[in-house]
Automatic annotation (TrEMBL), chains A, B:
SMART domains: CoA_trans. This is Glutaconate CoA-transferase subunit A. Coiled coil: none annotated. The lineage of its organism: Bacteria, Pseudomonadati, Pseudomonadota, Alphaproteobacteria, Hyphomicrobiales. It holds the Pfam family CoA_trans.
Automatic annotation (TrEMBL), chains C, D:
It comes from Shinella lacus. Pfam families: CoA_trans (PF01144). PANTHER family: ACETATE COA-TRANSFERASE YDIF (PTHR43293), CHOLESTEROL RING-CLEAVING HYDROLASE IPDB SUBUNIT (PTHR43293:SF3). This is Glutaconate CoA-transferase subunit B. InterPro entries: CoA_trans_fam_I (IPR004165), NagB/RpiA_transferase-like (IPR037171). It comes from the Bacteria.
Amino acid sequence: MKEKLTTLESALSPIVSGSSVAIGGSLLRRQPNAAVRQLIRARVRDLTVMSWAGTTAIDLLAAADAIRRWEGIYVGLFNYGLAPNFRRAVESGRIEVRDFSETAMVARLRAAAQGMPFLPIRTLFGSDIAKVNPEQIRTFDCPFTGQKLQAIAAAEPDFTLIHGYAGDKYGNVQWPVVRDTDDMDQPFASGAKRLIVTVEKIVPHEEIKKQPSLTYIPGNWVEAIVEVPYGAHPAACDTLYDEDDAHLRDYVARSKTAEGVKAYLDEFANALPDHAAYLEKCGGLAALAALDVKGRA
Amino acid sequence: MKEKLTTLESALSPIVSGSSVAIGGSLLRRQPNAAVRQLIRARVRDLTVMSWAGTTAIDLLAAADAIRRWEGIYVGLFNYGLAPNFRRAVESGRIEVRDFSETAMVARLRAAAQGMPFLPIRTLFGSDIAKVNPEQIRTFDCPFTGQKLQAIAAAEPDFTLIHGYAGDKYGNVQWPVVRDTDDMDQPFASGAKRLIVTVEKIVPHEEIKKQPSLTYIPGNWVEAIVEVPYGAHPAACDTLYDEDDAHLRDYVARSKTAEGVKAYLDEFANALPDHAAYLEKCGGLAALAALDVKGRA
Amino acid sequence: MADFTNNELITAYLSRQIREDDLCFVGVGTNGRAFTLAVGMPLAAVRLAQLHHAPGAAVYWGNLLEPDLSVIPEHFTQDTFTQWQAAACPPDTGVKCDMLARGRFDVSFNSAAQLDRYGNMNITAIGDYRNPKVRLVGSLAQPEHFAFVRRPLLLMDLDARSFVEKVDFITSAGHLSGGNSRREAGLSEGGPALVVTDKAVFDFAEDTREMRLKSLHPGVTKDAVLAAMSFVPLVPETIPETEPPTVKELAHIRSDIDPNRILLKV
Amino acid sequence: MADFTNNELITAYLSRQIREDDLCFVGVGTNGRAFTLAVGMPLAAVRLAQLHHAPGAAVYWGNLLEPDLSVIPEHFTQDTFTQWQAAACPPDTGVKCDMLARGRFDVSFNSAAQLDRYGNMNITAIGDYRNPKVRLVGSLAQPEHFAFVRRPLLLMDLDARSFVEKVDFITSAGHLSGGNSRREAGLSEGGPALVVTDKAVFDFAEDTREMRLKSLHPGVTKDAVLAAMSFVPLVPETIPETEPPTVKELAHIRSDIDPNRILLKV
C-alpha cells in the first residue's frame, strides 16, 4: 500500500484559484472546516464549489470571497439561520448559483461514481430549478417506455474534500458503527477525481484491517490524508464532539457585516500559520474537550 | 410499527406459479434455501427468477422444474462446478435465460430502487449479451454528450426473497459489522415490490434500535419476516456457519441424473412438512452445529 | 374553546391526516417558531397518530427510519441526533431519495418562504434567481416531496408575504397553473394536499386546483384570514370550523408526547 | 531449465506485468486446476509484484479491497473469506462495478471456456445461445473487464477446444473482428492484452488485433503450441523464450508467498 499521510498545506496545495471542489459533510456535521481555513489562508479564489447541505465550510469560503459558483442542495446555517456571507455574496452577484434538488444531486454524484455522463430522474418537471439550468438538466425520452425523463449531468469536480472520523496512513477512512448518516460523503468520495481527506485521528492499519467493512473511504480512492483533530470545528463531528454554540453565535453576529466577518477571518484563519494555531486560538485542546461527547476515544 | 413475523408457509403463499421472484445471496452465501424448499413443496411452477451469483437456490428450483426463465449474472455451484440441474434445464430448453453482466444487473436493481424505468451503462457494446436481448438492453444517445450508451431495463420482480442474519418482528434485518459483503442483497431489497425475508434469528427490537446503522433491510420495506435457523443450508451464512461440504457433494453426485435429483428433492423437500423437519433430516441442530464458525451467538 | 393552544389544535388536526401504515417525512432543522412548524408539530402529530389510531404510522426523520419517538430530549444538538434510537439508519441520504422517487412516502410536512395560489412553493430565492433580493437555502428535497409524496401537508403561519399570487421561483411544483397543468408538465397526480396554518386550513379545488379555504380555526374570521394573504383563495359559501382536539388527544399531547413543551414550545 | 515449475514460470511472468500502484482484479471461485488459474497464480503474482518491484500494487478480491496477502490459509471455505483482513470491504458488489466502469482497474486476470483469434471470450454457452450444447455460468463481470480494465491478462491452459477460430457467444468483447472494430462498436481502447498459457504467451498485433505468438515457454516448440489451438495465430519469424523466473522471484514464491503450495498446487 501507498503512504498518503501528509500535511494540510501539502494536501491542499494542488487546489488553486479557478478549481472546482466538492465539499463533504452535511448541515453541522463533518464540515471540512480546517481544510477550508487552509484554502482561505492560501488565498484561493474563483472556486466552483459543490455541496450537499453546506453550512460553515461554504459560508466561510463565501466570506473569504473564494467562490465564483456554487452547485448543491442547500446552503444555510441549520438552526443558526441563513448563511450570512453566502447570502450576501449571492445577492451581490459575486457568487453564481445552480440549485439541485436531492434526487438531482444524488444522480450527479452517482453518475460520476459510475463513470456515466448523466443519470435520469423525474423530479424536476415544472420546477424552475430545471428551467434555469438547461446546461445540466435536460428532458429526454426513456428508450424503453418513451416517457419523459430528466437527465442530470454528472458532478465532476477537480477535487473532493471530506472530513472523516479516523483513518490510517494509507488513506483508509472508517466510520463508527453508530453514527449520523444523514449525508453523502461516501457517494462524494466514490465519484471523486482527486480526493483529499482530513480525519480526526490517524490509527494503525492493523486496527483498520480487522473491520474492513467499516472503511467507507478506501485508501485506494484517496490522494492525501491529513490528521486534523477538531477538524470540523466550529461544526460537529458526530460521535466525537458537538457543534460549538458560542463560536457559531459569535460567527453569526460578526457576519452581520462584511467588515465584521473580515475581522473574524483575519483572526481565525489568515493570521494563523496552521490548524494547530487555530486550536490554540480556540482555547486549546483542553477547552475544546468541553465539546466532546461520550465515546470520544 | 407493524408486526411482520410469520411462518414460511404463510410468508411464501402469495408466490404462485407464473410469478417473478428475485433471489438474494451470492455464491455459497445466504442463499434463501429454506424458502426455496418451501416453494418446491408448494409445487410452484413457471417462475421468472432473477439472481446475482446464484448457486444452490437456483439449482434446487431448476431441479424441481419450477423455473421458466432466469435473468442474472451467474448460475453455478462455485467450487462445486457448474449447476447440474440448471444446466440440464437450459440445455433441454425448459429454462429460457437472459444474461446480464455485473454492471448491467446492478443498473437493473438500482433503477428499480430509484423508481426509474432504466439506467445507463456502457459495458456491453460488442457483446452478444446485448445482441440477444433488445427487449431489456437498448442503445441510445446521451442527452448531453451524444455518445452511445446502453439503457438497461429496471428489474421489477413481483417478489424478492432474501436470507439474512438477524431481525426483529417488525422486519428490521441487521448484519454483523464484520461480514462477507460480496453480494447485492441490499440493492435487491431496495428495489423490491414485495420483500420476504428469512433470518437465522429473531432478536428483540430493543437490540436493533441501539445500532440502527447495522439495519440493512428496514422493516418498512418488508412484507414478511420468518425465523429459519440454518436457513441457507447447505450453503453458508457468513459469520454463523460454513457451507456443508458433505451435503453439497452428495447433492452434486445425485444431480448427475434427473432421477437422482428427484429422489433428493423428495427426501429433503417434498416428503418433509417444514423447515424444522428438514433440520431434523440433516441430523438436527446438534449435528448442524458442526458447521458453525466462531462467533455464532 | 381556548382550553387548548393553537399548536395543540394544529397538531391534533395534522394527526388525523395520518392513516395507518403511513410513512411520513419530517425535517430536522431550524429553531424557534420555525422548529415548531418544521419539526415539533409534525413529530408530535405522527406520535399522536401512533398512540391514537395509526400504530403502524412511521417517520423518516433526518436519516433515521422509524426513530423512537417515545421520549423527546430537552435539547437538539448533534449528539442528540447521533444517539437517537431508530429501526434503521441507512448508509447515506441517497436511500431516502430513492424511497421518495419510488413513491414510498405517504405524507410530508413542508413549509416555505412563499406559497402561491396553486400550491407552488419557493425556498430558493426572493426576486430574480440570478440577482436575488433574498437568497434562501436552496431546495433540499422539497421538489421531491411535491413530485412523489402522496399527501404533502404544508404547515405555515398565515402571512401576506408568504401567501403570494405567484412565487418568485418555483422550487417545488405544486399544481403549477392549475387544472391539468401539473400532469401535462410530466408530474404524477398528487402535489400539495392541505395547507395548515395558524388561522385556517386550505385544500385545493378538484377542478381548478386553486387554493380553497377549507376550515377556520375556532374564533378566527374569514376576514382575518383574507387579510393575511396576498391573494384571494376560493371561499365556499359555508366554512366549517377546524375540528378541535379531543380530550383524549390533548391528554396524549400533554402527558405522553410533549410533557416538557419541547415540540410545541413556541 | 526445469529448476522451476510451469506454475512458477507463469506466476513470475505475470508478476512482471504488474506495475507500481496497479489495481488488479482477482476472482474467488472454483477448485483444482481452475482455482490455480483463476485465484492461485493471480494472487501469487500480485503478491510477488508487491514484494519485488511494486509495493503499491493492490488487489480487489471478492469484495475485499487490498486484502492482506501475507498469509495464505490452507483451506478456502466461506469463513476463510469472512475473516480475511483487508483495507476495505465495501457495502456491496456494486462498488466494485462502479470502480470498473469508472476505469479504476489496471489489470484483471481472466479465463474462459472459449477464446478466439481476436480475443473475444465466452463463458456463457457452447453452441446456440437459446438451445445450447453446454450452458456455462453466465457472464459475471467478465464483460466489464474487457470493456474497462486497462490490461486484461488471460490465463488459460492451451487447448484446441478453448482456443477457437470464433467463439460461440461473445460474453466479453475483445478486439471483435480486429482492426478498428472494437472502437467502432463503442468500446474504449484496451481489451485483452496478453494471453498467458501453460505453453506460451500471446499478445495481439497492433494493426489487425489478431492473436500473436509472443514467447514460448522453455522447452516448448512452436508446433506443440499450434497443435493445441483450433486456429493459427500470427507467428513471427523469431520467437523468444518466455523469460524464466529469477532466483529472487523463486525464493519469494517458495518461502514468502506460497510455502505450503496452496496457490500453485495443481
